[in-house]
Automatic annotation (TrEMBL):
It comes from the Eukaryota. GO terms for biological process: cell division; chromosome segregation; mitotic sister chromatid cohesion. Gene3D superfamilies: Tetratricopeptide repeat domain. Coiled coil: none annotated. It is found in: Nucleus, Nucleoplasm. Pfam families: Cohesin_load. This is MAU2 chromatid cohesion factor homolog. Residues 545-566 are annotated as: Disordered.
Length: 566
């Protein structure tokens, strides 16, 4: 130790490089030794270094503390000290500090900071493009799409002037996101052709392809076009395999503006897993959704050891939101509840994450409450979710599920009619015709869960009307499809109908087999119901306001009978 400091006094550059080397070694250790990394960087100040070195060290400390610790106040202090300094430091510090402000829900502090940095960065192409992109993202999150589009337009024009086609395309791609659904598909196809014909850096070209394909896939999924999206999704999966084999340092761009990346390569891999999970869930391939969720979460766990970028936590929450819904469908309520608790924990660590996902969290709890037949709690959760969202599709999803709560309770006719009026003012329609239309649309786009639910409901209607043959024609394929998904509720419903149908048709052996199936499904559901309601996390069903609770009291046991559950 003493020899190191003696050497440091004689050769200032050597001691600085040595401390940086040690800091980087500790940061990249497995697992990272962040405390020792911070100590090494703090030691730089003991030598009263030149101003440029001091500013760079404040930036490095702020970055390490922001990315690897929960000490956001100390990170903020170091970054704020770095900002008034030299150009090569101030823009990176401003970018990081604005991220930190957003994470703390201090958006009004982030915006002026970014605007000021944008004004003075016009001679630094990389940072000017990145800061414009960052501010546009911030406006998008706030639903201020006009300001976001203006900034993206400025970014695209600036990139054109400085000769960066890659960065220009990135900005134009984001502009497409703000277009109406019907306008997007032809524009994305056109842009995809432009990217294919672009003769640029191979990594940048593949990066752009991933960007456009992700946009294409998500727009198809937004429209419920699960079958139509398959060619694009396959291209995207092939593209991410190609980009993962390329090395970033093989060809460095000569234009500084081209150094801009819309997303790091490792993050792209997780994003592709995520859109694959979204597709699998919509299509009703729930085992496939589970497989890709496991892969994505494993990748995220590795990345978060060295990188606490907020987008990784966002990816993690969205993945969990999807797999929770899959668990509820497949009859794994206890696991779903534990994963809801994980989302709560992630949201506790980030006020911004909670703000963006509070409505979804209450919606998931509402779905869980329905699955364990706690209808009063389900209504309270959906009401809380409605209070917290302005998103049109999420609002419709919540209201539809709230309507199902009123139907299950049986005595809420007035509230139900009011909700139906809000969903569809002209709701006096013939139910069977609309069910057949639903069946036709779901079949056309391979929406397996929707098909299974439509078939079993039509089968039930025909059974009540006494048309047993037609009912059987609906229920048998519903059961086959539900087993393939697998959808426990539809299997339970279908087996109950098959038991009664076969009994009515005089098929004694088939009726016995269906009764046995129904018994098996009932037992599985009951055991899972008991396990879920016995978890301390079950108390989450009572939380409807404020941040998510951190501690849970143990339960005495389930209070709902199997009869009411079924």
């Amino acid at each position: 130790h003493s020899v190191f400091f003696d050497t440091a006094i004689k050769a200032p550059e050597s001691w600085y490089l040595a401390l940086l080397g040690f800091a980087e070694h500790f940061r990249t250790s497995s697992p990272p030794k962040i405390r020792l990394c911070v100590h090494c960087l703090q030691a730089v100040f003991q030598f009263k270094p030149p101003q440029r070195v001091e500013a760079r060290t404040h930036l490095q400390l702020g970055s390490v503390l922001y990315h690897h610790t929960k000490n956001s106040e100390l990170a903020r202090s170091h970054l704020e000290k770095a900002i008034p300094q030299f150009e090569d430091v101030k823009f990176e510090a401003a970018s990081l500090l604005s991220e930190l402000y957003c994470q703390q829900n201090l958006v009004d502090s982030a915006k002026p900071l970014l605007r000021k940095a944008i004004q003075i960065s016009q001679q630094t192409p990389y940072w000017h493009c990145r800061l414009l992109f960052q501010l546009a993202q911030l406006h998008t999150l706030e639903k201020d799409l006009v300001s976001a589009c203006d900034l993206l337009g400025v970014g695209a024009e600036y990139a054109r002037v400085v000769g960066s086609e890659y960065t220009r395309y990135c900005n134009l791609a984001l502009l497409l996101m703000e277009r109406k659904l019907g306008e997007v598909h032809p524009l994305l196809t056109l842009c995809g052709t432009i990217v294919e014909n672009w003769q640029g850096n191979p990594i940048q070209k593949e990066s752009l392809r991933v960007f456009f394909l992700v946009l294409q896939v998500t727009h198809y999924l937004d429209a419920g076009q699960v079958k139509s999206v398959k060619p694009c999704l396959k291209q995207l999966q092939q593209c991410i395999q190609t980009i993962s084999t390329l090395h970033d340092d093989e060809i460095l761009p000569s234009n500084p503006a081209d150094l801009f990346h819309w997303l790091p390569k490792e993050h792209m891999c997780v994003l592709v897993y995520l859109v694959t999970v979204m597709h699998s869930m919509q299509a009703g391939y729930l085992e496939k959704a589970q497989k890709y969720t496991d892969k994505a979460l494993m990748q995220l766990e590795k990345l978060k050891m060295l990188d606490s970028s907020p987008i990784l936590s966002t990816f993690q929450v969205i993945l969990l939101e999807h797999i929770i819904m899959c668990r509820l469908v497949t009859g794994h309520k206890a696991t779903a509840l534990q994963e809801i608790s994980q989302v709560c924990q992630l949201c506790q660590q980030s006020p911004r994450l909670f703000t963006n996902h509070a409505a979804q969290l209450h919606t998931l709890l509402g779905l869980y409450c329905i699955s364990v037949n706690c209808m009063d709690n389900a209504e309270a959760q959906f009401t809380a979710a409605l209070r917290l969202t302005t998103h049109q599709e999420l609002w419709a999803f919540i209201v539809t599920n709230l309507a199902s709560v009123y139907i299950r309770e049986g005595n809420r006719h007035q509230e139900l009619y009011s909700l139906l009026e809000r969903i569809n003012p002209d709701h006096n329609f013939p139910v069977r015709r609309f069910l057949r239309e639903t069946l036709k649309m779901s079949n056309a786009e391979d929406l397996n869960r929707l098909t299974a639910c439509s078939l079993v409901l039509l089968g039930h209607i025909f059974y009540v009307l006494g048309n047993h043959r037609e009912s059987n024609n609906m229920v048998v394929p519903a059961m086959q499809l539900a087993s393939k998904i697998p959808d426990m509720s539809v299997q339970l419903w279908s087996s109950a109908l098959l038991k009664d149908l076969n009994k009515a048709l005089g098929n004694t052996i088939d009726a016995h087999e269906a009764a046995q199936m129904h018994q098996n499904f009932s037992q599985q559901l009951l055991q899972d119901h008991i396990a879920a309601c016995s978890l301390p996390e079950h108390n989450l069903i009572s939380w409807t306001d404020g941040p998510p609770p951190g501690q849970f009291q143990a339960q005495n046991g389930p209070t709902t009978s199997l009869a009411s559950l079924l």
